[in-house]
């Protein structure tokens, strides 16, 4: 087999050797030549430009100056010791300050010599200074590194710096590598991918990304390497989908039988929306043949996902198989259970509820019924996955509100029956397209892009604390019209006690404002037993109480159509998707609904952006995009450790278009050559294999 020069262990590079090699591996995960080349510069400095000290202002980014060192001295006592030096050129002078590492920098500095200094001018009191600038003796005869003057700056670590492996040294090693071995770098992207996407050759790109000829060349190089990163990920994801389709069997569910038809024709209280019909057809289509389905159903709050879940589960039952519906919270699981029992009361379907609160005896009973097949539909919390339940024939797993559902948990479903169940993952917090394509690239997606008829858009307003009475007045007028309202307090896990006391205080002052018997108030929080929570929910649902005070336990799924106002206290403490979820609890009936966001006066920039977004739009997809922008992708998926690709160059937020482009390109290649058997794809196949072996396989995460 052809040896790829880039696989050579790093210690064999001229100037590295065993000791440095070890440090590079430990500190930067640079094991091979290839790793060094993909340790990309995180920025470039324009070394061709030298500023006059007199022209510096604090608005400038990092700049370069040349000057004579006038004075070096250590000032301050033990705790606040620092090194101060003054640099002068013909135009002025500037102070430089080091707080840490003063000793070894001091050795470097000699008054009277001329230095090249690189740093960010910042204001200290009324004077400009450089804090911790880079500094080196100025050598007027040194040849410029590149014509452009753009020089790479690399990340390094304190440990490496102590071994003299600083950014400059990495630059030198990279330069050596490219000079000695650069010619042997080959490209593994297929020719047509290069030409169709106007990508430059890999060899050229790697040269230009480290030592750009000019700005344009650097941009082309970065584009090429970003594309490559995303393309490889998509190849893995799509490649494994194709594998899976060939390998993984699911229960075939061809029959649309008595259960489905009776429910659809005789029980369903309203017409399905066009989108619901389409999605049910899509699900039937992909489960009928016996290939295991993995489907992500995205639908904004209130779009009617529960019915789609129900119909999918009836498909399983019609074919003599079993189904499960999993929810993120106990309340929601119970609500689903009650709801399903109500809707299916005239059908001989055995539905069971299994949660953390289920007694040991009942649990045993349920386990037995699942094994002998007499339980048709199991409803529960995500704890179902941890539970050792086994099914006779588990054909359909519906996971509600996926954004709270860990990636690893999903994989556990596969061990619950002989054949892996079809998986339908439902989420009301739409995952932005670019992220979905990367995280869930091998799931098929369905979208409920239509709300049931007659829904009126929810009006959202933002109030400051001090105008609380106005809000109460509004609530009273709504209650006088027969409506109900929610009042929600944030729940932050680390300080459950604090939140509870917040909630209880709010509850008590609310009782003064809304006295009995005119007003009835329910309260639900995480410290209550499942039974009590349920009781309070039922009281609210039946209209016995008009106000529901709650922590975010009601965040997802709760359905009380007569409730028209959602008041969110401390709204600045909630994330966007949470706010949107909470708002989705209203606007479910025929009456106009409102969402009121109450905040303190002081707001961070991000909090203000979130509130503005909520006031401006009801569109969950748009909200998800803003959320992604504010928080970054890792936070949203909640899979920092286990899931999101650790991209070196590409950014899922800002490179959305490139993700699509790379995906299209990958699809095209794989469509033509499923197993990459083609000679022209040999190098690509090898590269993918290499990535898999080094543990960067993203196809496993969905
Ligand atoms: P979500 O997608 O947020 O889970 P739900 O499934 O809870 O939404 O549905 C929201 C509300 O809309 C429920 O009260 C449900 O009964 C109602 N609903 C669902 N589909 C329709 C429809 N096609 N026509 C009228 N109402 C519907
Ligand atoms: Mg729901």
Relevant terms:
single chain, 702 residues, Rossmann fold, seven-stranded mixed β-sheet, 22 strands, binds adenosine-5'-diphosphate, binds magnesium ion
Q: Percentage of helical residues?
A: 40-55%
Kindly report how far apart the N and C termini lie: 33 Å
The strand line-up of the biggest sheet is: 6-7-4-3-2-5-8
CATH class of the domain at 459-617: Alpha Beta
* The CATH superfamily title of the domain at 459-617: P-loop containing nucleotide triphosphate hydrolases
Tally of helical segments: 25
Gross morphology: globular
The number of strands is: 22
The assigned structural class equals alpha/beta
User: Regarding quaternary structure, how should these chains be classified?
Assistant: single chain
In CATH terms, what is the architecture of the domain at 459-617?
A: 3-Layer(aba) Sandwich
Provide the β-strand percentage band.
15-25%
Mean pLDDT, rounded to whole units? Answer: 85
Hetero ligands: adenosine-5'-diphosphate, magnesium ion
- Main sheet makeup: 7 strands, mixed
Work out the radius of gyration. 31 Å
Tell me the CATH topology of the domain at 459-617.
Rossmann fold
């Amino acid at each position: 087999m052809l040896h790829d020069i880039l696989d050579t262990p790093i210690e064999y590079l001229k100037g590295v050797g065993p000791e440095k090699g070890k440090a590079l591996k430990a500190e930067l995960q640079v094991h091979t030549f290839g790793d060094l080349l993909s340790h990309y510069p995180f920025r470039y400095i324009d070394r061709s430009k030298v500023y006059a000290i007199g022209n510096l202002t604090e608005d400038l980014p990092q700049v370069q100056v040349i000057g004579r060192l006038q004075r070096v001295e250590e000032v301050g006592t033990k705790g606040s010791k620092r090194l101060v030096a003054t640099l002068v050129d013909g135009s002025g002078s500037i102070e430089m300050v080091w707080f840490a590492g003063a000793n070894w920098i001091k050795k470097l500095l000699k008054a009277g010599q001329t230095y090249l200094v690189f740093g960010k001018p910042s204001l200290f009191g009324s004077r400009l200074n450089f804090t911790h600038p880079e500094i080196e003796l100025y050598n007027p005869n040194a040849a410029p590194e590149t014509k452009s003057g753009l020089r790479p700056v690399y990340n390094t670590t304190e440990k490496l710096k102590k071994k003299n492996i600083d950014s400059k040294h990495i630059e030198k090693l990279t330069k050596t590598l490219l000079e000695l071995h650069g010619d042997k770098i080959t490209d593994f992207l297929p020719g047509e991918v290069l030409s169709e996407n106007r990508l430059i050759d890999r060899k050229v790109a790697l040269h230009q990304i480290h030592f750009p000829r000019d700005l344009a060349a650097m941009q082309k190089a970065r584009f090429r390497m970003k594309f490559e990163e995303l393309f490889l990920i998509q190849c893995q994801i799509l490649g494994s989908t194709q594998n899976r389709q060939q390998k993984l069997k699911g229960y075939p569910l061809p029959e649309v039988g008595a259960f489905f038809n009776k429910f659809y024709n005789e029980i369903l209280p309203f017409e399905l929306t066009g989108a619901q019909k389409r999605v049910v057809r899509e699900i039937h289509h992909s489960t009928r043949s016996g290939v295991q389905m993995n489907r992500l159903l995205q639908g904004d709050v209130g779009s009617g996902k529960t019915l789609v879940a129900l119909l999918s589960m009836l498909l399983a039952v019609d074919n003599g198989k079993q189904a499960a519906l999993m929810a993120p919270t106990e309340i929601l699981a119970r609500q689903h259970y009650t709801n399903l029992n109500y809707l299916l009361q005239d059908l001989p379907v055995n539905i069971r509820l299994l949660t953390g609160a289920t007694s040991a005896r009942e649990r045993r009973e349920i386990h037995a019924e699942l094994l002998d097949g007499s339980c048709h539909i199991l409803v529960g919390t995500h704890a179902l996955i941890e539970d050792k339940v086994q099914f006779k024939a588990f054909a359909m797993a519906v996971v509600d509100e996926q954004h709270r559902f860990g990636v690893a948990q999903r994989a556990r479903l596969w061990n619950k029956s002989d054949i892996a169940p079809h998986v339908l993952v439902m989420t009301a917090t739409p995952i932005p397209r670019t992220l979905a394509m990367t995280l869930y690239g091998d799931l098929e997606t369905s979208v409920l892009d239509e709300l049931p008829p007659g829904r009126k858009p929810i009006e959202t307003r933002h109030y400051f604390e001090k105008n609380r009475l106005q809000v109460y007045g509004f609530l009273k007028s709504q209650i006088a019209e027969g409506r109900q309202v929610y009042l929600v307090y944030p729940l932050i896990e680390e300080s459950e006690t604090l939140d509870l006391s917040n909630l209880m205080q709010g509850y008590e002052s609310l009782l003064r404002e809304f006295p009995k018997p005119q007003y009835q108030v329910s309260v639900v929080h995480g410290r209550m037993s499942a039974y009590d929570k349920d009781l309070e929910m039922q009281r609210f649902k039946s209209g016995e109480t008009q106000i529901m005070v709650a922590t975010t336990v009601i965040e997802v799924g709760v359905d009380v159509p007569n409730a028209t106002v959602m008041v969110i206290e401390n709204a600045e403490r909630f994330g966007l998707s949470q706010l949107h979820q909470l708002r989705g609890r209203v606007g479910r009936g025929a009456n106009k609904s409102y969402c009121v966001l109450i905040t303190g006066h002081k707001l961070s920039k991000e909090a203000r952006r979130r509130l503005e977004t909520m006031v401006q739009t009801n569109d969950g997809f748009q909200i998800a995009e803003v959320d992604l922008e504010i928080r970054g992708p890792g936070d949203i998926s909640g899979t920092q450790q286990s899931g999101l690709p650790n991209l070196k160059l590409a950014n899922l937020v800002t490179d959305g278009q490139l993700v699509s482009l790379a995906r299209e390109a990958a699809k095209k290649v794989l469509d033509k050559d499923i197993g990459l058997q083609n000679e022209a794809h040999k190098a690509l196949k090898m590269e993918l294999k290499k990535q898999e072996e080094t543990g960067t396989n993203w196809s496993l995460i969905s």
